[in-house]
Each structure stands twice: as structure tokens, then as C-alpha cells.
Structures
1.
Amino acid sequence: MLKSLIEWFDKQLLARGTAATVRSIFAVLGFSVAVAAVPGVPTVKFAGLLLMILLALTFALVLLHDRARLKQQADEDRFLLARYCRFLAERHGYVARVLSWRQTAVIDEEGGSKEVIRIHAVSMRRQLYFLPLKFGARWDQPKAVQKQVRVKVRSLLLEDTRGTSWRTTINWLPDGRLELICHLRAPVKIGADIKLEIEWCWPGKCAPLVKRHEPEEFIFKFNKLMPVEYAEYKITLPVGQEAYCEPIGFAEPSESFEILVRNNPNESKTYTFMGIGLTPGRELGMRLEVKPRDSARMSKDD
């Protein structure tokens, strides 16, 4: 019976629209309340109240059922779109040449990371419709945390002033990485400049680093579709924390890669990896391990 009622509501939604269907349901509910308010007839009042409760519960179930169905369909469409974009990106050679990739991350005491990535690239296709990118935490995060990740992509104009937002497709891969497809508003011709800013708030992305003092890697690994000429990654730890640091993918000193440590006015520390001519498929960056409070205090006294 409930299934038949839900199917009837679905038909009403398709035929009359959401607004008309909701108005009809509220009209019936209003009638039920009016019947329940009739004085002196307990049986009629009880029947009206029961009808009102039944309709309210049915309406809630219909909305939940419809929401779950729409969410499942949206997830499937997003997965298919990401797969087809991945196929197109890999089929036609180079996507873009990245002139500069500047990424900054500010980590809070709970391990959440607020990051901004500014990319300046040049199209390497006759017509470029989207930029495919992948990001990930360096540990297996639960899906509940993934649902809290918020990403915003927008244009960068002259002198790096912010422009309007881009459409994006977000898909979580089986290995826990976030696949981000940035859709350009119009196809970009070969040789044209592309400047964009990616901003996200990622709860718990660096929780093992700051909560459990486990070593964590902050690396770049670009593929051959997007060669990178210059990249930097700035990591700012919570106030009062500092870390042991070592390079990944190169040995110091190096002519192409460098790691710098900076003390900030608010007593936080920033660790920066910089590199030129990053080789596709090569992991390059740094590994950090937060020092115990006593060690950090002793280093300050020294």
C-alpha cells in the first residue's frame, strides 16, 4: 500500500510539479486539522487527527525516498561524467602547460586544512574545455569526512584579482583521492592563458600530523598531460608547533629544488617546497613530523 502511495505521489510530482503537489498535501492536512477541531464528536476528531498524522508521515517518507533517489542518480551521473572527461583528457595528448602552481595550506589544531591553489597555465589543445586535477590526503579518511570537504574554483584576473566562479565536478576515487574537474565557461584555444584559483576547506586532512605527531608527506606528482615549469607548496603549522623536515624525491643542496622554513609574526612556522621543471610521474616535496612540545620549547631557548 505504501509503495502504491509513493508511486502515486511520484506521478503527481511529474504531472503537476512539486509546488502544486505540496499545496495539495497541505490543503488535505488543513482539512484534517479542521475536522479534528470539530467540537463534540470524539470519533470524527480522532479520525481527522489520525489522517493528519498519516499524511504527514507519508509526505515525509515520500520526500526522503525522492531525495535518496535523486542523490543516487546524481552520484551516478557525476561518476560517468568524470570517467568520460578522464578518457578525453588521456586520449588527445597534452592538456596544458603549467607556468606556475602556487599552493598554500594553513593547518588548524584539529588537523583541518584551508588551502588555496593559484594556477597559471597555457592551453596545449586546439580547444580546451576542462582541466582534470586530482588531490588527496595522505591517509585513509572516512567517507563522513569526505562529505564535509568544500571546494570553490574561480577565475583570476589581472594582478591576480578574483573573478567569478567556475562549474566543477567532484568525484571521490576508490583510493580516497578527490578528482576535481574544472569546467571552463567557453573553449580555450591553443596558446591562450588560463588563470584560476582553487580554494577548499578539508576537515581532518592533516589530523595524523598534528594530532598524533605522525610523519606526513606533502608532495607533487604531476602527470605527462600537464607539464609544470614551477611549483611551490607552503605549509603553515598551528601556532606554537614546529616540525622536523626532510626532502622527498631529491637531495639537498639542489639547483632545481629547495625547502625553506620561515618564522611568522604570530609564532607559527611555514615550511615551503619550491621546484622548477618538475618531472612527470616523479614525487617531489617534503616530509614533516611535528616535534613534541618540549623539543620545540628547547629549540626556542637555544
2.
Amino acid sequence: MLVALLAQFGVPGGPELVIVALVLLLLVAPVALGAVAVFLLLRRRSALEERIAELESEMDRLRERVENGR
């Protein structure tokens, strides 16, 4: 919004600032999206590993109950 205002009111270098901002956005956006994707993937993987550990402990508990005849 500020960049658009600079270009609109005839500030010297305003259109150049808009172009620089757009170029930076185009360069930074893919890197930021990649970082977010990696973060979400790692978070999901750790949640799955935690859930697997819970299920394994539940299986062990149930095996002990079956072996003890309860």
C-alpha cells in the first residue's frame, strides 16, 4: 500500500521502488513457500511418529493383558 502511494504521488523514484518491491516479492516468495512446506512436512512427520509410538505402547499393554488372561 505504501509503495503504491509513493508511486501515485509522484515521489522521485516511486515507480522504480514499485519494480524493486515486485522483484523482491518474486524472489522471496518461492523461498518462503518452500520453507513453510518443509516446516509443515517435518511437523506432520513428528506427529505421525508420536502417534505410532502411542499405538505401539497400547499394543504392548494389550498383549500383556492377553498373556495374563485378563
3.
Amino acid sequence: MNTALIGFILFVAVALVGWAIAELKNKTIHFKHSEAEAEGEKEMEEHFMQNGAHEQNLQDLLKHNCTKGYSAVD
């Protein structure tokens, strides 16, 4: 057999094993948001509703931009 073919078969085998591990990990570990994240999400939702429940475009963002160069860091 050709060395390149053996390398390709090994690559596919390792990729399949990695994929299987990732799938099993995804099914066994359950993710839950923390209290701080839930609070932040609620705050973002309030801000979204405050802006008329539409996503801001670049002009909207620049209208409310409050950067002041180096004085903003102080």
C-alpha cells in the first residue's frame, strides 16, 4: 500500500474517533447558565425592547457612540 493512502486512512480514523468523543461528551455534559449570565441576558432583553425591538445598524450605533479617545480609559 502507498504511504499516502495509509496516512489518509489514519487521518480519517482519528477524525472519526475525535468526532465520536465530542458527540458523547455533548450528550453526557449538560450546560447550565449561571445567575450572572441570566441577569445579563435579562438586561440585554430590556435594552433591546428599549430600542424598539429591532437590531441596531451601524448608523444607530455611531449615533450613540461615547468613546473619547484616551480620556475614556482614565
